[in-house]
Amino acid sequence: MKRIGVFTSGGDAPGMNACVRAVVRAGVYHGLEVYGIMRGYSGMIKGEFVRMDSASVSNTVQRGGTILKSARSQKFMTKEGRQQAFDQLVNAGIEGLIAIGGNGTFTGASIFEHEFGIPTVGAPGTIDNDLYGTDYTIGYDTAVNTALEAIDKIRDTADSHDRCFFVEVMGRDSGYIAIPCAIGGGAEIVMVPETAMSVEAVIETLQNSWTRSKTSFIVIVAEGEEEGNVHNVAKRVKEAIPQLDTRVTIVGHIQRGGSPTAADRLLASQLGIAAVEGLMNGMKNVMAGIVDRKLMYTPFDDTINKRKVINQSFMRMVEILSV
Amino acid sequence: MKRIGVFTSGGDAPGMNACVRAVVRAGVYHGLEVYGIMRGYSGMIKGEFVRMDSASVSNTVQRGGTILKSARSQKFMTKEGRQQAFDQLVNAGIEGLIAIGGNGTFTGASIFEHEFGIPTVGAPGTIDNDLYGTDYTIGYDTAVNTALEAIDKIRDTADSHDRCFFVEVMGRDSGYIAIPCAIGGGAEIVMVPETAMSVEAVIETLQNSWTRSKTSFIVIVAEGEEEGNVHNVAKRVKEAIPQLDTRVTIVGHIQRGGSPTAADRLLASQLGIAAVEGLMNGMKNVMAGIVDRKLMYTPFDDTINKRKVINQSFMRMVEILSV
Amino acid sequence: MKRIGVFTSGGDAPGMNACVRAVVRAGVYHGLEVYGIMRGYSGMIKGEFVRMDSASVSNTVQRGGTILKSARSQKFMTKEGRQQAFDQLVNAGIEGLIAIGGNGTFTGASIFEHEFGIPTVGAPGTIDNDLYGTDYTIGYDTAVNTALEAIDKIRDTADSHDRCFFVEVMGRDSGYIAIPCAIGGGAEIVMVPETAMSVEAVIETLQNSWTRSKTSFIVIVAEGEEEGNVHNVAKRVKEAIPQLDTRVTIVGHIQRGGSPTAADRLLASQLGIAAVEGLMNGMKNVMAGIVDRKLMYTPFDDTINKRKVINQSFMRMVEILSV
Amino acid sequence: MKRIGVFTSGGDAPGMNACVRAVVRAGVYHGLEVYGIMRGYSGMIKGEFVRMDSASVSNTVQRGGTILKSARSQKFMTKEGRQQAFDQLVNAGIEGLIAIGGNGTFTGASIFEHEFGIPTVGAPGTIDNDLYGTDYTIGYDTAVNTALEAIDKIRDTADSHDRCFFVEVMGRDSGYIAIPCAIGGGAEIVMVPETAMSVEAVIETLQNSWTRSKTSFIVIVAEGEEEGNVHNVAKRVKEAIPQLDTRVTIVGHIQRGGSPTAADRLLASQLGIAAVEGLMNGMKNVMAGIVDRKLMYTPFDDTINKRKVINQSFMRMVEILSV
C-alpha cells in the first residue's frame, strides 16, 4: 500500500483533528502518502482530496471540530454514489481508507469494501461513547467535561436561588454522558434511557429531599430519555411540587466543540496510529479501539450489532452520593 | 455608624461574593461590625442575620453564585413586610445597608429609606450591564466571557458541518452581552433590541453571504429581541433558505455562574469598599459605580430612571468584521 | 463498625474533596458515623476530629485542594506519636480509617495497624499516578490536563517567535505526567526517568529537525529527570545550538490545584465508596483501586513494593507524532 | 492609499490575531488591499509579504499567538536595513503600515517614517499594559486572567498545606499585571516596582498575620521588582520566619499565550479598525488607543516618552482586602 485516504464522518467530536494528525504523521513515518478526503463520503464522491504532509497537521492537536469537515451523504447510500467514490479513489491512486466516525460511517465503509474491495480501518470518533469495541470513543471525555463545567456553573445559580434545575445533556440513546455528569456534578437524580426512571419516581425523590430541607437540586436528563424531553419533565415536576422554583437548561451543541482533553488527545493519537498500522498489515472492516488499556481491532459487524453495556454500579453511586 | 448589613438580591451574578468579601473586609478595616443578611429582603424580614468577620469570607473571591443567597420577596413590596424588616434591623442594631443587586433591589431600598430612614448604598450586581451610573456591572464581564467560550465551541461544530447556528445569549432588554459576543465570536449577524433588525434583513444578509460561498454562520440573538425568540428566527430563516443547515443553541443559565474574571473581581472589590466608605460618609440612596475609570456615586433615582446607551459604533463593527 | 475517620495526607491532589465527599455520603448511606481528621496524621495525634454529615460535603465535589487539609507528621513516625494517635481515636470511638494519599501515607497506616489494630483502607490520592494497584490515581487526570493547558499556551508563543521551549512538568520519579503532555501537547521530545535519554540525544534530534526547517520546538522534561534539571538541559542545548532561541517554563504547583476533571471526580467517588464498603467488610491494609475498569483491593505491601510500569508504546508514539 | 501592510512585532500577546483580522476585514471593507508582513521588521526587510483576504483571517479571532509571527530585528536598527525594508515595500506597492506592538515597534516605525516617508499607525499589542495613550493594551486582560487562574490553583494547595507561596507574574517594569492578580487572587501582599516595598516590610506583614493565626499566604511579586527576584525574596523571608513553609511559582510564559478574553477581542477589533481608518485619513506616527471608552490617536512620541501612572488606590485595596 502506497497511498491512503483519511476522512471524518458523522457528528464531529473533539479529538478528531488529533486523530487525523496521528494518521498523517504515522503515514509519513511509515513511508505512505496520505490524502485528506474532505466532508466524508460526500467529498469522496466529488474527489475532494488534499495531499497532507507532516506540516499540514501542525498545531491541530488541540483544535476542536475537524479540519477535514464532516457531512452526511445521501448519495453514498446509493450504489451509483459508491461507484463514483470508487472511481475517484482509483483515479487518485488511493488504496486504503481510515474512517474516523461512528456506526453510520462504518456501515458505509463495510458495504463499500464488499462491493469495491477498498479496505477501511475505522477509529471511533463520536462524543456518545456508544460504540462496542472500545472503552471510550474519541471526544467522549471532552464532551463530559464540557457538560460538567456547565453544570458546575448552574450549581452556582441553583444554590444561590434555591432552585431545581433540569439539565439536558447529549448522548443519543445512552446515559454515557449523563451518568458521570450526575456523579461529578453533584446531581440528585439522573434520568437515562437505560433505567427508564419514571417522572413519578423523580417527583417522589424530590419531595423526600424537600422534606429533609434540601432546597436546591440538579436533575440530569439524557437527551434520549424515554419519558419525553427535559421541558416536559420539568413541567410535570412543577405541577406536582408547585413550591419548587424550576428551571431548564439544555447544554446542547457546545458539547461537540472545544479543545480536546488530554485523554481524548492521547486516545485519538493511539487509535490514529493503530488504524494506519492495521491498514498496512492488511486489515479491513475493523475499528481500532482500546479495551482495558489494550489495543483491539473489532470487526465493523460487531461494533454495529453488539451493544456496549453501561456499568450498572454507576447508577447506584448516584443514589449513594445524593444521600 | 457601628453595625452594617450586606445582602445580595435579584438574579445572582459572578463577583457578588468578591463584593461581599470587600464589604466585610472594608468594614473590619474601618472598625465596623458587618452582618450578612441571607436571601435579600426575604431574609431581612425574617431576621436571617449572620455575623461576618474577615475569615468568614476567606477563599470566596473566586466563587460564583452568592454565599448570602438571593431571593425575590413579595412581602417586602408591602408596607407590612418592610415594617417587619425594619423591626428586625433595629433589633439587631443594624444601622446601614449595602445592597448588591440591580434596579429592583435599589427601588426597594429607596422606598425603605424614605419610610424608615435606614440608609442604603448600592453596588451594581447583575450580568446584564443595564444600569445607569457605571460603565460595567459586577458579573457582566464574566457572563460575556462564558457566552463567548460557548460560542467558540459552537463555531468548531458550525465550521465542521457548514451549518448556521442561532445562538441566544442573555441580556434582558439590551444587547450588552450579545454585541461583544458577536464581535469576539466572529458572528455574521447580531440581533439586539436596540436595533430592531428584521428577520427579513437577517435572511438577506445570509443569502448574500451564501452566494459569496460562505458556508458556516453564527447569528447571535439577544434574549429580549423583539422579533420573537431564537427558535422562531431560526425557523423563518430555514423556510426562506432551505439549503441552510440550521441549529439553535440557548446559552442560558450557565452565563450566571462560574468563577468571576479578573475584571469582575477587581470591580466588585472596588465597589464593595466604596459602598462601605460611602455609607460611613453619610451617603444613602446611591449606587457606587465606575465611570471612565473614576469612582462615582449615582442616586438610585438616576440608576432607575436613566437609560445607559450602548456604543453605536459596536454595531458598525459587526458589519465590518463579517465582511 | 459504627464510627470511622477519614483523612487526606501527603501532597494534595484535585479530587481529594470528591473522595472525602464520597466517603462521608457512603458512610451516611450505610449508617456509619463519619469523622473528618484534620491535617492527616498530625491532626490524628492532636485529636482534631470533626463530625461530618451529608451537608458538610455539599458543594465540595468540584473544589481543588482538600477541605481536611494535609500535613507531614514527623511525630507519627515515632512509636510515641502513634500511641497518642491511637489514644485519640479510642477516645473518640473511631474504629476504622480511610486514608486518602500515597505510599508514605499507606506505610504509616500499615505500621499503625500492626501495632494498634486500627484498620485502614486507602484510596490513591496523588497527582503522580505512581501507585501500583490502580490504573489511575485521584488527581492525575486533572494534573495532566492542567499541564497540557499550560503547554497549549506556550505553543502559541513558541510558534509566534520560532522558539524552543523546555517545559518541566511534575511527576516525581516517573514520566506519567510528562508523556501524555508530550503526546497531547505536540512536543518534539520528552525526557523521562524511565528512558534516561541523554542531552546529547536531545541535541541531535533538535539539530535534525532544525535542518528540516522546523523552527519552533517543545521539549517536555519530567521533574525527576536524571540528566539534571530543566535549566541545565536548556543551557546545554543552547551551548550546542546557539541559533536556537531557548526558553524555560516550570509548570510547577499549579498542577496540584484546580477543579478536578470529570474522570477524577468519578474515580474519587468510586474509590471513596469502595473504601468505606471495604472497611465495613473487614478489610484492612489495602488500597481500593480500579484496574482495567474493575474495582480491586491491593495490599499496602504491594502498592508500596511493586512498581507500576509505564506503557512503552507511548514512548514510540512521541517519536512517530513528531515526524 | 491602495495597499497597506500589517505586522506584529515585539513580544506576542493574546488578541494580536483578532487585531490582524480587524485590520484585514476593515481594509477589505474600505476597498484596500492588505498584505501581511511576516516576522515584523525582519520580514519587511526580506519582503516576506502575504496577500490577505477576508477568508485568510477566518477562525483566527480566538487564537493566541500571532499568525504573522513576531521577531526582533537587529538589522532594522541600521539605516541599511531600513533602506532594504523601504525597497521591499515600494517594490510591493505597499503605501502604509499598521504596526501591532509596543514602544520598541513604534520607535522603529517613527524613525522609518522620518527617513522614508512610509506612514505607520500603531495598535498597542503587549501584555504589559505599560503604554501611554490607551487605558488597556491588547493582551493585558488575557494575561491577567491567565495569571489569576494559576493563582486560584495555587491557593488550593497553599490552603491545603498551610503554606506561603511567592508567585511571580510578568509585567516588565510595572505592577499592572501584579496588582489585579493580588486583589483578585486574595493575596496578602503585592510587591511591585512602583512602591518599592522592602523585603523587611514583607516579613513584618507576614509575621503580624502569622500571629493572628493566619496560616496560608500568597505574595505576588512583579517580575521587574527591585528587591531582586522571587527566589531571593522567598529565601530571605524563610530565613526570617523559619516556621513558614515557603514555595515559589513563576507563572512565566503561559501568560503570553491562550485564547484572548472577550475584552481583548473587542479592544483588538476596535483598534484594528481604527488603525486602518486612521491611516486612510492621512494619519502617521500615532497609536490608536481607548481612553475612558473613547477612541484616541496618540503620537508615538507621547506613547514612548510619557509614562502611564498606575491607580494608587489599588495599592490601598490590597491592604484593606487582606485585613
Automatic annotation (TrEMBL), chains A, B, C, D:
An annotated Gene Ontology molecular function: metal ion binding
- Name the coenzymes or cofactors required: Mg(2+)
The leader peptide range reads none
- The residues covered by the Phosphofructokinase domain are 3-278
Per UniProt, where does substrate bind? T126, I127, D128, R163, M170, G171, R172, E223, R247, H253, I254, Q255, R256
Transmembrane helix among keywords? no
Pathway, per UniProt?
Carbohydrate degradation; glycolysis; D-glyceraldehyde 3-phosphate and glycerone phosphate from D-glucose: step 3/4
What's in the GO CC field? 6-phosphofructokinase complex
Q: Where in the cell is it found?
A: Cytoplasm
Catalytic-site annotation from UniProt: D128
Binding site residues for ADP: R21, A22, V23, V24, R25, R155, G186, A187, E188, R212, K214, T215, S216
Q: Which reaction does it catalyse?
A: beta-D-fructose 6-phosphate + ATP = beta-D-fructose 1,6-bisphosphate + ADP + H(+)
Q: Which residues bind Mg(2+)?
A: N103
The positions annotated for binding ATP are G11, R72, S73, G102, N103, G104, T105
Give its E.C. classification number: 2.7.1.11
Q: Which UniProt keywords apply?
A: Allosteric enzyme, ATP-binding, Cytoplasm, Glycolysis, Kinase, Magnesium, Metal-binding, Nucleotide-binding, Transferase
Q: What class of enzyme is it?
A: transferase
Cited InterPro entries: ATP_PFK (IPR022953), ATP_PFK_prok-type (IPR012003), PFKA_ATP_prok (IPR012828), Phosphofructokinase_CS (IPR015912), Phosphofructokinase_dom (IPR000023), PKF_sf (IPR035966)
Q: Does the keyword Repressor apply?
A: no
Major localization class: cytoplasm
Regulation of its function = Allosterically activated by ADP and other diphosphonucleosides, and allosterically inhibited by phosphoenolpyruvate.
What's the subunit arrangement here?
Homotetramer.
In terms of NCBIfam families, this protein maps to: PFKA_ATP (TIGR02482), PRK03202.1 (NF002872)
Xref: PANTHER family: ATP-DEPENDENT 6-PHOSPHOFRUCTOKINASE (PTHR13697:SF4), PHOSPHOFRUCTOKINASE (PTHR13697)
Q: What is this protein called?
A: ATP-dependent 6-phosphofructokinase
Question: Which organism was this protein described from?
Answer: Hymenobacter ginkgonis
* Lineage, uppermost ranks: Bacteria, Pseudomonadati, Bacteroidota, Cytophagia, Cytophagales
